[in-house]
Each structure stands twice: as C-alpha cells, then as structure tokens.
Give the backbone structure.
Amino acid sequence: MYLRPLSSVFSSDLAIDLGTANTLVYASRHGIILDEPSIVAVNKNSGAIEAVGSDAKRMLGRTPESITAIRPMRDGVLADFKAGEKMLDYFITRAHGRKFLVRPRVVVGVPSEITEVEKRAVIESAMRGRAREVHLVNQALVAAFGAGLPVTEPGGNMVVDIGGGTTDIAVISLSGIVSSRSVRVAGNVMDEAIRAYVRAEHNLLIGESTAEAVKLGIGSAAPLAQPIAMEVRGRDLTRGVPKSLTISDHEIRTALDASVSAIVTAIRQTLETTPPELSADISDRGIVLTGGGALLRNLDRRISNETGLCVSIAEDPLTSVVMGIGKLLDDFNLLRKAALN
C-alpha cells in the first residue's frame, strides 16, 4: 500500500497576501485563517523577537529603548530580511497550529514591478520560514481573480489594487496581464502625508496609528455631501506637552490630494498603453478597485470623474488578493501560468 510522505500528510498549501500594512493567510479547504499587521517587535540588545502581528502593533510608539517595533515590508516588498523571515515563520507556524513538521507550498502576491533581488528576498525568507516551495504571483492579477472578474475570458478587465505600500494597476485578458503599472504610493504614504500636514499646519506631532485612524475616520478623495470632523491628539511641538485639536475632512482631503493624484495619473498612463480592443471592453466594464485604499471615501468618484469611466469597489476589497491567490491553490495549471518565478 502506498503511503504518502509524512511532510505531505501535514502539509496544507497556503496563500499569503504579504502586505506592507497587513498580512493575510488563506489555507486550502479552510479559507482565511489569519489577518495580522505586518509588524515585528525586536529586542535591540539580544536580537530576539518580542512580538509579531497585533501584539507588536500595540507596541508602536510605546516601546522602551531596548525594544523597537518595525515593519519588515516597505513599499510592498521585503526590506528587512531577518525580521521578514521571523514574521513569515511565525505566520506559517500559526497557520498550521504550531505543527513544526509542516512544510507547506506557499504562494505569495507581490507588486508587478518587483525587482529580481526583491523576488529572491521573499522566496528565501519564506523558504527559511518553513515553506516547502514558494511561488510568486502578481498582486493585481490575483486581486482580479479574488474580485470575481471574468479574467479567463478574451476581454479586457481593469483592476486597481491599493494596498499599504503600493498601488498595482493591471489590464487583464485570458488570465494574463496585457498592461500594468505599479506605483509606491498607497495607504502608508497617505498616512505620512496626514502626519506631515498636521505637523506643518498645526504644529502637532501625531503617531502612525493616529494618522491611520484620521484617514479612516474622515479621509476622502472628493468633497463629501456633509462635512465631518475629528478630534486629533498628539504633542505640541512648541511647548512639548500633549495637545488635542479638531480637524476637518477638507484639511485631510488637502493632505491626501498629492497621493490620490499620483494614483489617478498611474491609472491614466496604464489606459494609454492598453490595446484599442481591450480599451473598448474597459469602457463597457469599467474599473474595479481592491485593497484597503479602495475604502477611501469618494475615491471611486474621483477616479471616475478624471477618467470618464465607471468605477466600482470589489465586494470585499480587503481580501481580494488573498482570495485570488487561494483560487490558484486549487488550480495548478492556472498557478503555473500566473507564477512569476
């Protein structure tokens, strides 16, 4: 009687959306099993990992000098190899209930304009983090799969995936990318723009978490029907004491305008390089937004106004990428076509 190797008995293929802000893990036959911030807390004296994910995020801005909370991902790619390896090891082990014999096949979504060096960094980190084999796939392509677009058909589909580190734009037909662009302007750049604006205009220093909360609370890409405001707390840079103020949606829209304009410009540049036949399809079908950035108020309206196209938001934009990768786990032929390595 044939017996499978022990490694395959414990192996469960994983789809990983290795995002700059959050990492999502999807397991075959189980769905999404993990959604954690892409953050690692490291002890600077010993080099030991103190916390990963949500536990590490709670430490942002609150750690003693001996501990630093860092983001291994920057602009959608792995910037800190050692921390990234530890983070992947932690997530993969957690995904399999801490079974140390597990060596899964892992498929990871990456930006379209990732370099060969950056590809190798992700692959090597995942391999050292207990993966048996690693496949890389284009984030925009799998976001289209996850959003339910008919990308296997001979027709043009356009998806804009706005994550934490990058915005990936692609025109897709017959399961392949016809035209694409990736810009390193997304959620994190928006957060930094808010911090810079509040500092310059109000002389108030706010943290990363506060800037993100402001973006989610009152951020918008086009004027709102009803003005809204939010109380912001930070440190007065003149007096060095805690201070709070009320900030309006108009101010935050001003802070975000350069980032939104950069995304719109990248979309228009992608449309300019799209074959005429597929352009006609996109004119009929419109553009679909995925990723956390798609939730910025009135972003769909702003893009529609500037491109003249219909723009819609995926049903669950935050999970489109990982759900798309998950579909590839069940279709090896499709994975082989989509894999970048």
Summary: The longest helix spans residues 249-272. The CA atoms of residues 15 and 26 lie 5 Å apart. The chain has three domains: 6-141+321-338, 146-185+256-317, 187-255. Confidence is low (pLDDT under 50) at residues 1-11.
